Amino acid sequence: MSTQIAEEQQTDEPGTGQPADAEAEAEREENEYAVPEWATESEDGPGENEDTVRLEVFRYDPEVEAKQEPRFDTFHIPLEQGMTVLDALIYARDQYDTSLTFRHSCRQAICGSDALFINGSQRLGCQTQVQDLETPVRIEPLPHQEVEKDLVVDMSHFYEQMDAVDPYFRSEDVEEGEEQRQTRENREKIKMSTRCIWCGACQSSCNIAAGDNEYLGPAAINMAYRFVMDDREEETIKQDRLEIIEQEHGVWRCQTQFSCTEVCPKDIPLTEHIQELKREAVKKNLKFW
User: Fold this and answer.
1) Which of 138, 143, 204, 226 can pair with 193 through a Cys bridge, CB separation 3.0 to 4.6 Å?
2) Model-level pTM?
3) Predicted local confidence at residue 5, as pLDDT
4) Structural domain boundaries, residue 87
């Protein structure tokens, strides 16, 4: 979701030696990222009243000179009953500034694509009610991740950490088409861990992940928990997965701060799952003679 200015062949302005539309192009670029005065910050702004909400939105675009310096733009959005932060951002983009960039998809807290840093906490934009927030509503990209543009961050490292724990069910001894039954009790045990939507909010909130780029992180460890604790997982594969998460940058790096659990939009007890895997790792290495 980046903006690129197309390179077009230009002719010189007679007597100037400059491209004919160079000045017009510079003016167009400046205006493209300008927000209408009636929509922006003002002490007694005409757009600010009891029926509007004030958004302070982080802006940055490395590809456009006018936006290479990070800043905050202010928008006054008409407040409606049931409006979410995502609704407000969409309104700001559609009505005020079409260059405003952020991710969103399902709008039902399922896809996890609109995780943002809202009023100092990791939240899903589509799940967060504007009326529940203090104003002004300050919206920033997820911390501790490289910003690509405005509210969009690079999620590639997060996906690599998730992939590192083999986040899928596999079995070497089960024949194709053979049914593998799971007990009700076991399903109940791992139920919460299966709710992860890969939003990255927990990873962004983790101080350990912020300082240790190799740390698997709470989301990846929770995904490992989902399979390690599944009673259909073969013992040899379970042991292989435990070896992955008990390494130096695995479960033992967790300092039990509960920040990941606090921000999880699906209420997954991430810290508890990490502690359970620590116990499993210890039991794996115990020997009795």
Assistant:
1) 226
2) 0.80
3) 34
4) 37-153
